[in-house]
Description:
Four copies of one chain form a homotetramer. By secondary structure, the first copy, chain A, is an alpha+beta fold.
Amino acid sequence: MSGSGFGKLFKITTWGESHGKAIGVVIDGCPSGLSLCEEDIQIFLDRRKPGQNEFTTLRNEDDKVEILSGIFEGKTTGTPISLIVYNKDHHSTDYGNIASCYRPGHADFTYDSKYGFRDYRGGGRSSGRETIGRVAAGAVAIKILKELGITFTSYVSSIGELLIDFDNFSEQEIKTNPFYMPDAECAKKAEEYLKSIMSDSDSVGSSIECIIKGVPAGIGEPAFDKLDALLSQAVMSIGAVKAVEIGDGISVATARGSENNDSFYVNNGKVDKKTNHSGGILGGISDGSDIFLRASIKPTPSIFKEQETVTNDLNDTVLSIKGRHDPIIGPRAVVVVESMCAITILDLMLQNMGTKLENIKKIYN
Amino acid sequence: MSGSGFGKLFKITTWGESHGKAIGVVIDGCPSGLSLCEEDIQIFLDRRKPGQNEFTTLRNEDDKVEILSGIFEGKTTGTPISLIVYNKDHHSTDYGNIASCYRPGHADFTYDSKYGFRDYRGGGRSSGRETIGRVAAGAVAIKILKELGITFTSYVSSIGELLIDFDNFSEQEIKTNPFYMPDAECAKKAEEYLKSIMSDSDSVGSSIECIIKGVPAGIGEPAFDKLDALLSQAVMSIGAVKAVEIGDGISVATARGSENNDSFYVNNGKVDKKTNHSGGILGGISDGSDIFLRASIKPTPSIFKEQETVTNDLNDTVLSIKGRHDPIIGPRAVVVVESMCAITILDLMLQNMGTKLENIKKIYN
Amino acid sequence: MSGSGFGKLFKITTWGESHGKAIGVVIDGCPSGLSLCEEDIQIFLDRRKPGQNEFTTLRNEDDKVEILSGIFEGKTTGTPISLIVYNKDHHSTDYGNIASCYRPGHADFTYDSKYGFRDYRGGGRSSGRETIGRVAAGAVAIKILKELGITFTSYVSSIGELLIDFDNFSEQEIKTNPFYMPDAECAKKAEEYLKSIMSDSDSVGSSIECIIKGVPAGIGEPAFDKLDALLSQAVMSIGAVKAVEIGDGISVATARGSENNDSFYVNNGKVDKKTNHSGGILGGISDGSDIFLRASIKPTPSIFKEQETVTNDLNDTVLSIKGRHDPIIGPRAVVVVESMCAITILDLMLQNMGTKLENIKKIYN
Amino acid sequence: MSGSGFGKLFKITTWGESHGKAIGVVIDGCPSGLSLCEEDIQIFLDRRKPGQNEFTTLRNEDDKVEILSGIFEGKTTGTPISLIVYNKDHHSTDYGNIASCYRPGHADFTYDSKYGFRDYRGGGRSSGRETIGRVAAGAVAIKILKELGITFTSYVSSIGELLIDFDNFSEQEIKTNPFYMPDAECAKKAEEYLKSIMSDSDSVGSSIECIIKGVPAGIGEPAFDKLDALLSQAVMSIGAVKAVEIGDGISVATARGSENNDSFYVNNGKVDKKTNHSGGILGGISDGSDIFLRASIKPTPSIFKEQETVTNDLNDTVLSIKGRHDPIIGPRAVVVVESMCAITILDLMLQNMGTKLENIKKIYN
């Protein structure tokens, strides 16, 4: 039941529905002494804000975040940080048949099965707006990690059949095009491609990659709380994600050991790796090289094409979804993936500090 | 630090190293009243036991499980069940350069980074033998789920470039060939293929699929403890897994919404789906159809080819691994994937019982 | 660090400081289908509201609760319930020497030690106002428990040297006098007594008792999550509590076994007890008789007498606290104790439903 | 259900029944690099071992501990430490009417209510032998804390009406008499007193005090995971404990604020307190002075006097308990209280290291 919390020491709890009064998150366990203001968080929320271009829903939301607790004189106090975003554009009159029938690809049916009824307004709790809390908390985690020298590069690596070309990779480009793609040429093609999808009343899938630099070796726990295991939970828990890959991902299934193993060598007096098939994680623990993760995102389930479905009183019916919907989920989900990765890594870093007796003595003596 | 526990209500804690005295698991929260004896667990452990054919390590272990607590007069009492398997075949003299250098693809370097030193005997805690506890606990979960009508079909779906043909699918066949493949013809080819890999002193990757039938709609929690999110953590936490897919997995990234959405229809007075691209999970909650999961398994990192690496006192070196190693991990990992899925689902089912006020009243009034 | 959460399945997370913008709680895991409106919660908050009589602080707060999520069409949906109370009466200019010196009996020094600095306005997070979130969540738990036939009687049983006389016990009286005492005569004496304490610029301790009727036998977990162990954590976590007793409490230390053991007998075809020295709990599990708990509450640390203390730059100083403070904590804490007991019991009841295999089958088949 | 685990980062899971094959504990999250051998643990187990004098049960158990995992070359590796004690003296034939009737003061009835049946041999899981795992884990925690300069003084402070006189307090004396009392004279009286209780076929209560020196200021979390709250859970979870007091405990209920507040002063350039009514904890966080805790222990419920009770098929009956039982629980529980306090404090210290951003930077940069 209580599945809205994530993390052990840097623990977040998200709440709120698409068309309720507000959406928010409580961060319990943020270290004290971090400079933090609303603008630090807002820039991340703006990356997932709707209505920014013709490829995102027209829903008119400012998504302005307000800090309600945990900050004093511009710094985190170590006590819970409560963040809230009020929902502005409810459009609460116009749900029609959504209330009484189950949209394919959505959680309408499963919520009814679980709870006996559901808040059908805009998907309620299962709406993409649930990720606002994740991104707000992620902004805080990313700020702390940045002070420790850890940075994130996240982007859309494919839209439908269009894949980015790594020869064109430009980190700068990611912020320039509406699809958060690092390849300008591919982004240009995507524009045409998505227009054709939209004119077809359809949607399409995509994939997101996240590269994390600067994580020291030794982060992650053996057995069940492996760094890759918790990253998988974190990223798979984002609504539309259907696959998570670490390092070479599914291609390890066809690789040979002699190809897949990364050779170690001594580089400037430190252990380094000649390749990074492992994606920066060995035995569930960071190895000091870049962490690489890929998520596969399903197409937006809300499409304008007619679809067969059933009503909640068990009659077959045909559904035409109206309203406003992104033809693709990936671009707005990039910052969500990045946020969940940051929260996971920070939490494991906090846990990691008690690993060696010598570190413990360093703090307490 | 405390990453060796998994689950909230059906909670397992595994312990033990490859070459320590014993390996084990404590199951805390097993419901009372279940008939349980050592043989129930042994049949699952036997599926991952080494030394069963020419494609697995020759390590000579019986892997006989002993129940130390939690059972009275043949039934679970509801108190912790402690299960132990003594390590028999230590070969504890022969570690040579493993102690002083980092094997590529293994966790030697990351353990040293994290803890300052490591139990280098056979990989210590990061050995595949750590999964013995998972399988022993999984056997208990699978037995309970079976009483609720939930069953598992798990198998190797590819070895290197060899993929099973679903037209040849035979559940019976899975137990017949040494690779746990449901396609006899593919298994036959795999035999030749693996012999050539072995003669090449190399290893190869594989993939495992798990189909779970009978899970009622409504299992899994919204937000972070989604059924697919926790399955991902559970399966990604198995040593060699580098990707987890649910339903159509990575192919959703290239699909259109109109293809990917599963239409609902009324079937015998109940809600059913015409297709199952979602893999039995919508919005993180089971939808009543089969749950489908795929894991990609990396090649065995221990290969006999010479490999470049470094010593733990930071000198470049060349390593030749000796001893006995499986050329492929997948077949023996099938039962581990199945076990982790079962533990995850049972735990979420126990959590789910408090979801509706009417259910709570059913128990207490 | 993340200590602001309590409970496993009915999980609450509180946030907010005395003089921040707002105070609140998120309830994650509330069962669906419960009728719930703000008034249900407000009546509990009103029991701890300041400014209600001459014996409580004059701080002018309405403490009006607002539901931000988790309710749809008047019923809980099963998703997180976010509750907020805006702080109205900040008086934020007037902290003077509180900012720079450590008040005896308060957490000023320990917060500085832990976090490096603190929100000194009105005690920040360590203020009694932190309990607003507990009471709001407790109101929800109490409502659910009431539907299951479980009720609470909570009251002040002593103020300083004044003890209630059980011969005068009147449940009705509890709501009548300003001290929530069940003995009208004792309450009358307390009025005079407290006036003399106040005129002395001092404060005084008190004790609270809570009787819980209707908890079925079988609630609570063996070992560490015993019902009495978790009740102790829950109640001791309330700011000023310094002792928790179950049943006969400290007097068991002088009792003989033949006195302390409660004889069982058959009463109307059910197992009953002739006495209840155990306070309704045996081996950490409810035995079906009334649960009895007592908490000892320290005197309000904010007193108007001059006190010796130190500044945060390590100089000895003398402190005169000004402003508005209750001379006694007990009366306003009664509803907090009751709330924490309710949250604990509901959480354990939800966990308990998976205890017997037959119950599990009842839900799923 | 899963109540056999305690702690977040230094996490213990105990298992085993009084008359099962063995009893044990898994410690998950012990820092690496600690020298540890079986003798380190054995000396603590010997403090609770039965059969040491005429006032304890004659049960013949060596209670020899064996380390099964987590140690390599004499040091903790950071992976789970599994500790086992085999039960030797089962006497498993002689349970007679215990199997079919409910012993007053014991958990027989509540286990049957919860689980549907129980392991009735010697109390099964609710036996005092369950504390073996706690003490074994406590020994490890105490060893780590000792390296950080934290020490424990624990003793019996009263037996029935006999209270120790603090003027006679001798730490050396604690280990000298069979009652772990720090007052030789009182211990002498206790000997006569207990003989008379025993000749009366009865038992008697007692109390235990624990003083913890050297805990730095700043340990414990605000809100629910307060140091005193978790100590209360930890100690109340020990079988026979019915009250937990911190600092002045129940006497705060009759104290005035001006008496109860501890004045701060500057001592050798550090903040110190003139008195310690708070018992070393303010606002749930350690204040650097000695932590003081008292537990009230009920009389042994197994007495030889005839008692009225019921059978499990609901008939009134009369029970005469035979066998071997301590007339008092306190002395053997001293080391259990100490162990639970140590586990709690160590766990909170590990959590505390991520509190300040500057500490985090100290570890990672």
